[in-house]
Amino acid sequence: MAxxxxxxxxxxxxxxxxxxxxKREHSPANVDLxxxxxxxxxxxxxxxxxxxPFASAMMQSVSGAQMAVALGGxxxxxxxxxxxxxxxxxxxxxxxxxxxVLVGAGVNTHDYKDRIPPLVEAGADILCIDxxxxxxxxxxxxxxxxxGKYGDKVKIGAGNIVxxxxxxxxxxxxxxxxxxxxxxxxxxxxxxxxxIGRGQASALLEVVETRNKHFEKTGxxxxxxxxxxxxxxxxxxIALAMGAxxxxxxxxxxxxxxxPSKIVTINGKQYKEYWGEGSARAQNWQRYGKEGGKxxxxxxxxxSYTDYAGPLADGLTKTLSKIKATMCNCGSLTLAEFTKNxxxxxxxxxxxxxxxxxxxxxxP
Length: 364
Ligand code: MZP
Known about the structure:
- This protein is an alpha/beta fold.
- Helices cover 35% and strands 18% of the residues.
- It is built from twelve helices and 17 strands.
- The longest helix has 19 residues, at 200-218.
- It is globular, with a radius of gyration of 20 Å.
- The structure holds ligand MZP.
- Residues 57, 59, 185-188, 190, 227-230, 248-252, 276-279, 300-301 line the site of ligand MZP.
């Protein structure tokens, strides 16, 4: 008989943090947002870390060289999309590296033997398997290829998964970090189309617990990347409080000037185009593995507009200020302390309404 999980599938917007005691040293200037990017042993330092816990999505409408340089300059990382020719992707990696920042590159489970060597040669600091379903033996094959050719020198993340079984599978396969999330992306219609996925908060909470147990048992810490479903800054904050080491975001970065898509003006308002990798526009059938790997039979993503948000530096500075301020409210100066100290509560719809401006007429 099918196993049923009666607990509702939760999303970030359904949670709030309770403040902890804020001591005098808890000032935003003292907050350190460093986060591990790859697995490491207890007492050792990870070979790669981020200065801010953000990665931009491996998507045509998000992570080109301009975004990679801008986000890398802040200490985050862009994963250059792989739904393009190997040469074009390698050129973007090279261009980003020439600015002296960290850069990642997406790879798929189809042409990885041809794609990975040029990306490594171009200077990619880390690879990540781009797939809507990471709980698959194809991912094992990609990691095996990397280990066979480069040993531990070349780092590779894998995903996406939504539960402990997927996490354990990818850890056993040798992933350097594990990425989670199915169906929560703003442009994603996988849940509607295929009835598969899980609320991002539910997925994260389960996998964090399993990851922490794995660390206690083996002494190896596996960083978790929560991918998709972050619509607002408060969602990013809740995800970090729940134990994500870093967040991959698509729409959030697509809004900025540095993303590869065009700015369009509709009725006097500026937007940026943002399309899913599972949309007909992206033609990234390699990510979705349909019908034995033969083209895009049905769409799992949409082509859309998102509000234009100006230069990345302005918006990201504001987002980081909010994260630091919340961490201070919660008596934490590092992300590890933040998640260790976090007390989260599920909120009712009435409480969400109360959380915004209410019973007033907001001045234009
Ligand atoms: P978001 O930040 O826009 O909510 O979600 C971005 C994430 O959605 C990506 O990192 C990727 O995992 C996922 N994605 C990309 N394309 C599609 C699609 O077309 C998708 N369905 O789900």
